[in-house]
């Protein structure tokens, strides 16, 4: 049995220490590569994130590669709503421009001055409708710092212009159906400008407060956007209620214009109720709140613009050029002449001077009794029958003949002179 010398133990111990030292030497250099790996992976991760962002901004099908991402909805074939709405809005812009040109062209040929007085209001209305169709593109383009002020300011102002024109037209019709006379052009234009100025002040104040609160960044919530339009909703409700009273009056031809405004306001209110419910509650309930907000507002703009064109402007252009009919005015709209008492032909109070004793007082009061020959055929019913031998009387210088100072007529005392011949 061989027994290792004590030196072997030392060798083993030395060998063990050598292994520990080697392990230490191996552990120390293992930490350095890990640090280098992290530092090397950081630029790689940044590069990959850059590639991911670039891949996310890749132009969709139908858009150019150099187009900014905010304009993708205008040409994205996958999101068809943007292309459809911009096409409908473009057609609306063209039709509105044509209507403006037509209205300016037919203005000199409008014979009724009362109809011509409403042309400036209708031009302002078409201008507001043109802006509504143009504002649709601000909601098709994605939300950013440039489109935010445009949305907040122009939505309320443009609709205020349109509804102010309709309200002014209703006010004019309320006077026309009752008296036949409307307000002046200056009064109507002033009313439209004053009503629009109120919404302009509200929008500017809201924009200033919003930008200051968010530190030069424009942003809004759905409820805030709707609260900004409370004044516009008030104008809508007032116009709708007053348009109902345009059906009460003696002048029938103006009631047609009131019917146009009534139908227009009815459909406009329906559109506003739908888009407000969807914008505030519906999209969030369907978990489509960020994605469907802009399409909802864009559809509301286009729909309301076409309601203005089809239900109000086109019928107004048709009736504004039609001549007035006799049955449109009330039968008692033309009062008889107070100087003649409504008499026709020879049935006139001038012939009351058949006797010299009555004279001529110059008073054409209706209480003056009518002579016996006052009828549709006064000659046949005259109590004074003409003689068989009719001779033309000659003026005489007799003292018994005293003509009135106002009527120096030699025929007044003809009957008296016949008895003296």
From TrEMBL:
Molecular-function GO term, any one: G protein-coupled receptor activity
Coiled coil residues, start to end: none
Top-level lineage group: Eukaryota
Recorded GO CC terms: extracellular exosome; plasma membrane; receptor complex
Domain G-protein coupled receptors family 3 profile: 121-279
Entry's localization field: Membrane
Membrane disposition: Multi-pass membrane protein
One Pfam family recorded for the sequence: 7tm_3
Keyword Membrane on entry: yes
Transmembrane segments annotated in the record for this chain: 79-111, 123-141, 153-174, 186-208, 228-247, 259-277, 297-315
PROSITE patterns: G_PROTEIN_RECEP_F3_4
Keywords of this entry: Membrane, Transmembrane, Transmembrane helix
InterPro entries: GPCR_3_C (IPR017978), RA-inducible_GPCR3 (IPR051753)
PANTHER family: G PROTEIN COUPLED RECEPTOR, CLASS C, GROUP 5, RETINOIC ACID-INDUCED PROTEIN 3
Similarity comment: Belongs to the G-protein coupled receptor 3 family.
Official protein name in the record: G-protein coupled receptors family 3 profile domain-containing protein
């Amino acid at each position: 049995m061989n027994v290792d010398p004590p030196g072997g133990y030392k060798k083993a111990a030395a060998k063990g220490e050598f292994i520990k030292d080697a392990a230490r030497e191996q552990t120390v250099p293992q930490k350095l590569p890990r640090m280098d790996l992290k530092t090397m992976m950081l630029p790689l991760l940044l590069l990959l994130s850059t590639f991911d962002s670039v891949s996310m901004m890749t132009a969709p099908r139908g858009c150019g590669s150099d187009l900014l991402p905010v304009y993708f909805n205008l040409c994205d074939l996958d999101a068809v709503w943007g292309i459809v709405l911009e096409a409908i809005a473009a057609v609306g812009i063209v039709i509105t421009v044509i209507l403006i040109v037509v209205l300016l062209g037919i203005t000199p040929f409008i014979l009724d001055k009362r109809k011509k007085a409403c042309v400036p209001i209708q031009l302002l209305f078409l201008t507001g409708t043109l802006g509504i169709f143009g504002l649709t593109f601000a909601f098709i383009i994605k939300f950013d710092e440039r489109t935010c002020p445009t949305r907040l300011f122009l939505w309320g102002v443009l609709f205020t212009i349109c509804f102010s024109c309709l309200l002014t037209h209703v006010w004019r019709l309320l006077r026309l159906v009752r008296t036949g006379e409307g307000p002046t052009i200056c009064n109507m234009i002033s009313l439209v400008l004053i009503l629009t100025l109120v919404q302009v002040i509200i929008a500017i104040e809201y924009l200033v407060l919003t930008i200051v609160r968010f530190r030069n960044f424009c942003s809004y919530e759905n409820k805030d956007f709707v609260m900004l339009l409370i004044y516009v909703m008030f104008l809508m409700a007032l116009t709708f209620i007053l348009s109902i009273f345009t059906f009460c009056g003696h002048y029938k031809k103006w009631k047609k214009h009131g019917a146009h405004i009534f139908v227009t306001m009815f459909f406009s209110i329906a559109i506003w109720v739908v888009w407000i419910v969807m914008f505030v509650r519906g999209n969030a309930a369907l978990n489509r709140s960020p994605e469907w907000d802009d399409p909802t507002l864009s559809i509301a703009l286009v729909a309301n613009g076409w309601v203005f064109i089809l239900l109000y402007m086109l019928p107004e252009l048709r009736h504004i050029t039609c001549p007035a009919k006799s049955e449109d005015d009330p039968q008692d709209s033309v009062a008889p002449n107070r100087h003649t008492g409504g008499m026709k032909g020879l049935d006139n109070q001038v012939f009351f001077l058949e006797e010299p004793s009555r004279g001529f007082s110059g008073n054409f009061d209706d209480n003056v009794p009518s002579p016996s020959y006052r009828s549709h055929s006064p000659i046949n019913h005259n109590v004074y029958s003409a003689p068989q031998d009719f001779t033309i009387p000659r003026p005489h210088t007799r003292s018994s003949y005293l003509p009135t100072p106002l009527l120096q007529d030699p025929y007044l005392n003809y009957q008296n002179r016949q008895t003296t011949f």
